[in-house]
Amino acid sequence: MDMNWIKTLKSLQQPSCNVAPRLLGCELERTFGNKTVRVRIVETEAYSQTDAASHSYKGRTPRTDIMFGPAGHLYVYFTYGMHYCCNVVTGLEGEGAAVLIRAVEPLEGENILETQRRVQGISLTNGPAKLSQALGIDKQLNGHDLSLSPLKLVLRPPLEANMITTTTRIGISQAKDVPWRFYISDSPYVSKK
DNA sequence: AGCGGGATTTTCT
DNA sequence: GAAAATCCCGCTT
Asked: What distance in Å separates the CA atoms of residue A143 and residue A64, rounded to the nearest whole number?
């Protein structure tokens, strides 16, 4: 295991509400054969086991199993009959915690994202199901180790707190008042302001 | 710009 | 059997 990833893991083995803002500005690197796509994370939400809005709230099930596993793996879920969304698992093993990636900005290989999505511009990656489709993420990558190809998480230096907006989460019916949504204030790719 | 409904299937009650 | 960590389209203003 390389040194950079050990450092990454250390920052992920913490409560999801600490990790979620930490992931802003970090990158995802997706490879398709010899082609590379890089994106920058600009919006996240934290979910934890004691949180009524979380899939892990009612305990470990076949669906949420990955959330309870080691940090630094990918939790992918299927919802509304047609969409995949992806999360970075956080916390210690046995804790059901993860950070939902809600929006990213293209950095490299935008044309490949466009091929997956069949749209252009902001709506390419400004939502959790949109970015998952753009990056070709589905159930096959559920449980994937994010230190490995074809999908890697690359940590970047933490952003200044004054660049980040903190709000309540989107699309949930429980724990609506918990302020666990974080986004880079000036990013045009944020799903909703 | 904002609202309302339909798509479509896994998951748990 | 109902709800779901969503998206897209069409309608109204």
From this structure: 10
Among the listed residues A46, A83, A40, A45, the one whose alpha carbon sits nearest the alpha carbon of residue A188 = A40
* Closest nucleotide C1' to the C-alpha of A48: C5
CA–C1' A149–C6 (A): 27
Tokens of A182: 């974080």
CB A177 within 8 A of CB A52: no
What global pTM score does this model have?
A: 0.97
Rounded CA-CA distance A145/A79 in Å is 22
Short-list A136, A129, A99, A134, CA closest to A191: A129
pLDDT in tens, A110-148: 999 999 998 889 999 999 999 999 999 999 999 999 999
The footprint of strand C (CB < 7 Å) covers: A 45, 47, 53-56, 67, 75, 77, 79-83, 85, 87, 98, 100, 117, 119, 123, 127-130, 169-174, 191
Q: Which of A14, A15, A42 is nearest to A28 (CA)?
A: A42
| Interatomic separation, CA of residue A135 and C1' of nucleotide B11, rounded (Å) | 25
